[in-house]
Amino acid sequence: MWYPPHMRKLPANQNALAPFSEVPPSIFETERLRLRALTLADLDLIFETYTGDPIATNYMAWPRYTRPEDGRPFLEAVEASFSGAPIGTAQFSWLISLKTTGEVIGGCGIGTDSETSVGGGYILNPRLWGKGYAAEAFRPLVGWAQTQPHVHRITATHHPDNPASGAVMRKVGLVFERVMRTENGYPNVNQQIVDEVVYSWTRAPGESG
């Protein structure tokens, strides 16, 4: 769930942001949270808050960072996407903070899976689990993606042993689709080929963004 950016190249005649038609807002605000676009200046902050935390990253589909510098390629790709010139495919990620105190509690993101599909996810510092923050942060990203006319499908996935993440996906309007085998694995739980639970939203025929 929620992996660092793909680096595959798109055909020269294809919109670099596809299937997005535009760059999303760099800031979203909800009742309790403020989301702002990640930048290279956040290298140390995200490592201290979540990318280096063994509990927070346990069910992520990317290896836990062992030092802040591990996040540089990811943040460079995010900055490039927000500039409108992605490295490979578009990947947008935001830092999540509490509006009342400014405390940074996690991150969330959404990015290109294919020419018509996007995938997204979220990660929180374990101290803040169980308070509804993940759904509150992820909901505006899903809502924005649904306004993009060429986005026909939005997906999020989770490890079978992490059903709480599935509850978050249901709260933001995604529905259970299937359980599939994946070779990407979940490296932080030492599994290479595992089952993965898929949730999705699919645009209805004739429905506009």
List keywords for this structure.
eight-stranded mixed β-sheet; alpha+beta; single chain; Aminopeptidase; 209 residues; 27% strand
In words, what does this structure look like?
- With 209 residues, the chain is an alpha+beta fold.
- It has a domain of 126 residues: Gcn5-related N-acetyltransferase (GNAT) (Aminopeptidase).
- The chain has four helices and eight strands, in the order E-E-H-H-E-E-E-H-E-H-E-E.
- The chain has an eight-stranded mixed sheet with strand order 1-2-3-4-5-6-8-7, with helices on both faces.
- A hairpin with a 5-residue loop joins strand 3 and strand 4.
- The longest helix has 14 residues.
- The two termini are 25 Å apart.
- The N terminus is likely disordered.
N to C succession of SSEs = EEHHEEEHEHEE
**Distance from first to last alpha carbon:** 25 Å
Largest sheet, spatial ordering of strands: 1-2-3-4-5-6-8-7
Predict the CATH topology of the domain at 27-152.
Aminopeptidase
Structural class: alpha+beta
Total strands: 8
Q: Helix fraction? A: 10-25%
- Oligomer classification: single chain
Which CATH architecture of the domain at 27-152?
3-Layer(aba) Sandwich
Number of helices: 4
Alpha carbon gyration radius: 16 Å
- Mean pLDDT, all residues: 90
Shape: globular
Strand count, sense and barrel status of the largest sheet are: 8 strands, mixed
CATH class of the domain at 27-152: Alpha Beta
CATH superfamily of the domain at 27-152: Gcn5-related N-acetyltransferase (GNAT)
Low-confidence runs of at least 5 consecutive residues: 1-13
